[in-house]
Amino acid sequence: MRKALTLFFAALTLNACAALERPDLNNYREYFYAPAAAEAEQPAGVKVTYLGTSTLLLDDGSTRILIDGFFTRPGNLWQLAFGQVHSDKAFIRDALARLNVDRIDAIPVYHSHHDHAMDSAEIARLTGAQVLGSESTAWIMRGAGLPEQQYTVVSKGQPYAFGDFRITMIEGQHTELPGLIVSTGMMGDIDQPLTQPASIFDYREGETYTIIIEHPQGTSMLHSGALKPGSLKGRQIDTVFLCTPGIPKMSLAEREQYYQEVIAETGASKIIPVHWDDFTLPLNQPLVPLPRFAEDLDAAMQFLIQKQKAHPEVQLEFIPAWEAVPLF
């Protein structure tokens, strides 16, 4: 009964989210990526393609790294709250074809919630990728029948080499979620094979990582809007893919400490906001922000813009979906 009530109120929450106003991306047009005229003349380096939430494809021309694997984006609210979800294999194949990708070398998984891990096994099966993640992510791979040699339970802080890329996954922290969501058990661990279809509440967090990807051309990092103080000490980062949902939940002092440790002390010169889009909407439609009830993107951007104006050497830039843009 308790779980049924929890799911009922979760459904009400999701429907409320759908009904509320969304931030207007047009307010931030000056922070959108615009290709420079000289780019076509520059030698190919590392490019990145944004695919919503925190799914990012990094490609240096010979090696491809896909952070997370989430193309399906199921969005029926009743299904999300009460039903089950599964990977849309046809859409995944179509998405890979649209990207002109038939091989991926590695898929580091940020954490094991459905909006990060759900499609990772199928993408790995189609592309031969090695999946990197927590024991919870490994249980998802086992449930999908992915061969054991195609997934690795990472050792935090250990670099894994793929071509010229080095992937290091260190301890991170999930942004704070409402108590209603926490009560479903979603912040726990997966401890048995997870087979599809499954409830989104079965996709438990496991461990959340900060993902650092080094390359001779530069170093990038996916970071949540939450901070493990001291976790980045001594790290040098060029570009931060910054999950915006956690920032409005911080106090002013916490935001200042967050910026200091994640941006200032790492020497980052570019911030790219991610995980701001509504991941219940199809990936083949234009990305739109989450409703204000789910995330206050305006509050996050107000803080980041204020910081960018105080530190103009740090570029703040939204990048478009599906388009490979220069990273380094």
Chain-wise SSE layout:
Layout: H1 2-19, E1 47-50, E2 56-59, E3 64-67, H2 77-82, H3 89-99, E4 106-108, H4 114-117, H5 120-127, E5 130-133, H6 135-143, E6 151-153, E7 159-162, E8 165-171, H7 179-182, E9 209-215, E10 218-223, E11 239-243, H8 252-264, E12 270-274, H9 297-310, E13 315-316, E14 325-326
Parallel strand pairs: 4-5, 5-6, 10-11, 11-12, 12-13
Antiparallel strand pairs: 1-2, 1-14, 2-3, 7-8, 8-9, 9-10
User: Largest sheet, if any?
Assistant: 7 strands, mixed
CATH topology title: Metallo-beta-lactamase, Chain A
CATH level-1 class: Alpha Beta
Helical residue percent band: 25-40%
Q: Low-confidence spans: pLDDT under 50, at least 5 residues?
A: none
Can you put this structure into words, describing what you see?
A hairpin with a 2-residue loop joins strand 9 and strand 10. The protein has 328 residues and is an alpha/beta fold. The N and C termini lie far apart (53 Å). Helices cover 27% and strands 18% of the residues. It has a single domain, classed as Metallo-beta-lactamase, Chain A, CATH 3.60.15. It has helices at residues 2-19, 77-82, 89-99, 114-117, 120-127, 135-143, 179-182, 252-264, 297-310, and strands spanning 47-50, 56-59, 64-67, 106-108, 130-133, 151-153, 159-162, 165-171, 209-215, 218-223, 239-243, 270-274, 315-316, 325-326.
Quick synopsis:
With 328 residues, the protein is of the alpha/beta class. It has helices spanning 2-19, 77-82, 89-99, 114-117, 120-127, 135-143, 179-182, 252-264, 297-310; strands spanning 47-50, 56-59, 64-67, 106-108, 130-133, 151-153, 159-162, 165-171, 209-215, 218-223, 239-243, 270-274, 315-316, 325-326. It has a seven-stranded mixed sheet with strand order 7-8-9-10-11-12-13, covered by helices on one side. Strands 3-2-1-14 form a four-stranded antiparallel sheet, with no helix packed on it.
